[in-house]
């Protein structure tokens, strides 16, 4: 896997990209880097990473089993970052659902930094 480009769509190998954030959250210097690492975690089914990157104020509302089910039942195809600000990322994640139907998850995500670490707060689905 080290020679392949990272699943997040960067031109870097996974080991020089999202794996750095997966191994240490402090390596995400921007909310976009965290967003990319979260997408890659869905691809690689790193459920604990996804769960732990929810902001502590919203984490308790998340269901690990549902996150895992969506991650496992989806065949993640592509991540497209559309727009970023210092605390938001608008993106489209393309995936095949369990019925092999192509789906598009279009979201504007909100992020907050807490003690030097970026966290996903919430997101709004867009049409």
Automatic annotation (TrEMBL):
Database matches in Pfam families: SEC-C (PF02810), YchJ_M-like (PF17775)
Alphabetized SUPFAM superfamilies for the sequence: NTF2-like
Origin: domain of life: Bacteria
Annotated ranges, domain YchJ-like middle NTF2-like: 30-123
Protein name: YchJ family metal-binding protein
């Amino acid at each position: 896997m080290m020679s392949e480009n990272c699943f997040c769509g960067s031109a870097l190998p996974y080991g020089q990209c999202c794996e750095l954030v997966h191994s240490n959250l402090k390596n995400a210097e921007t909310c976009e880097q965290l967003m990319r690492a979260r997408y890659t975690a869905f691809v690689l089914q790193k459920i604990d990473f996804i769960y732990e990157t929810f902001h502590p104020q919203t984490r308790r509302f998340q269901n690990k089993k549902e996150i895992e089910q969506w991650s496992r039942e989806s065949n993640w195809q592509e991540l497209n970052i559309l727009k970023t600000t210092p605390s938001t990322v608008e993106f489209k994640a393309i995936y095949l659902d369990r019925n092999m139907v192509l789906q598009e998850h279009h979201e504007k995500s909100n992020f907050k930094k807490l003690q030097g670490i970026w966290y996903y707060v919430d997101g709004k689905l867009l049409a």
